[in-house]
Amino acid sequence: GVAYRHTVLTIPDELRVYFYRNAGLLSELMRVGIKCLEDTLSTVLRRCVCGGYIVVVQTNGRSGSYNPHLHIIMTSGGFATNRQGGYCWIKLKYFPYQVLHKKWQYHLFEMLKEQVATKEMQAKIDELYRRYPNGLVANIQRGEVPKRIKELAKYLAKYVVSPPISVRRIVSYDGQRVKYWYNDHKSGRRKTEEVDVFTFIGRMVQHILPKGMQRIRYYGLHATAVY
Question: What pTM was estimated for this model as a whole?
């Protein structure tokens, strides 16, 4: 019966190559995404709050390109201690985008400076701070996330089991070239792309995660030890 919000955390184009070269950074990306939301939640509610989070990492964009980002189902609020030493539920009535954008920028950049401790990364981060003075893109989708367990599972499933390019989006294949369509995120229009078969296969297999890596993880109130 708890209300949830669906949050999407993205990274700049200039940083995607680092995740492509080192898939282990995806685990750090998931952890830092939760750290950002916990920080944002506590800042907005002006007290330390423990929320619940279900995280799904996705590496593909709509065209099949490598675009790592996070889908996070988070509780709209969390538990906090009261004056009597017990716990009370604090509801999150609104989510300020400006705060989230700046928090996400800070936490992501600090993680990358720690994990990729090179002069190249430091210069890249300094440049991106200047390029994005208002923070990075983080979307909170409008509308209620399903409250019931089965409906919530169906809601999450499309971000887990869907392939980068579904079969119905393949227009043609002649043994040498593949033509497929996708909805462009920026223009909102349908685009068609035609590539040779090996390029197409390469775009698909680059999204296979390392063996043993969990695409779905649970944090906060949803963590196994806490739940």
Answer: 0.83
Question: From the centroid of its chain, how far is CA 90?
Answer: 24
Give how far the C-alpha of residue 27 lies from the chain's centroid of Cα atoms, to the nearest Å.
11
CB 183 within 8 A of CB 36: no
Residue 163: CA atoms inside 13 Å, Cβ hemisphere, count? 11
Those residues of the chain that have pLDDT short of 50 are none
Distance CA 160, CA 115 (A): 26
Distances (CA, A) of 132 to 113, 135, 136: 17, 5, 7
Residue 143, pLDDT score = 53
User: Which residues, other chains included, contact 36 with Cβ-Cβ below 8 Å and sequence gap of 6+?
Assistant: 9, 100, 103, 104, 106, 107, 108
Residue 142's pLDDT is what?
53
Give the dihedral of Cα atoms 212, 213, 215, 218; nearest 10 deg. 100
